[in-house]
Amino acid sequence: MARTGKLSLAEGWVDGYLSAVEWRFTAGEFGQPGAATAWTRLRHPIVPDETPSPLQRVLAVADSGNGISSELDLNSWHFINPELSVHLHREAVGEWICVEAQTAISPGGAGLATSVLSDADGPIGVGAQSLLIAPR
């Protein structure tokens, strides 16, 4: 695992989720266009006084693919993901979940962010977010 990513938020964003997750980028970083890979770990339980389950740890970050692999400036564009599909072939082991993501944007305001989800033992599944893209 490498450096901790900088949190570069669009003006007016309220930080909450980004601080609730620890981010360690091995490729790319927040606000840098292109594919990115980040190891993630929840800083807080989802339910107070309960240890997150393996599924909760994965699903909490599976929706982050587009956020770490954005292709357009977050200050100028909206990225709405109306749908998320996650397919897992085994349960995650350990606290750290890796999200290796890339985003493809097509003319007309559509896109797709895809992620390989892994733990320290290797891949555990994939995630896909359909995207609706519009200028701010």
How would you summarize this macromolecular structure in one to three sentences?
The protein has a 6-stranded antiparallel sheet with strand order 1-2-4-5-6-3. The relative contact order is 0.20.
Describe the structure.
With 136 residues, the chain is mainly beta. The protein has a single domain (17-135), classed as Thiol Ester Dehydrase, Chain A, CATH 3.10.129. It contains three helices and six strands; from the N terminus they run αββααββββ. The protein has helices spanning 17-20, 54-62, 65-68, and strands at 21-27, 36-42, 77-88, 97-106, 110-119, 122-135. A hairpin with a 2-residue loop joins strand 5 (110-119) and strand 6. Mean pLDDT is 88; it is low at 1-10.
State the main characteristics.
12% helix; 136 residues; six-stranded antiparallel sheet; 44% strand; disordered N terminus; mainly beta; Thiol Ester Dehydrase, Chain A; single chain
Residue-averaged pLDDT, rounded?
A: 88
Distance between the termini: 34 Å
Number of domains: 1
What name does the CATH topology carry? Thiol Ester Dehydrase, Chain A
Structural class: mainly beta
Rg of Cα set: 14 Å
Sheet with the most strands, sense and barrel status: 6 strands, antiparallel
Q: For the record, what is the CATH homologous superfamily label?
A: Hotdog Thioesterase
SSE blueprint and pairings:
Blueprint: H1 17-20, E1 21-27, E2 36-42, H2 54-62, H3 65-68, E3 77-88, E4 97-106, E5 110-119, E6 122-135
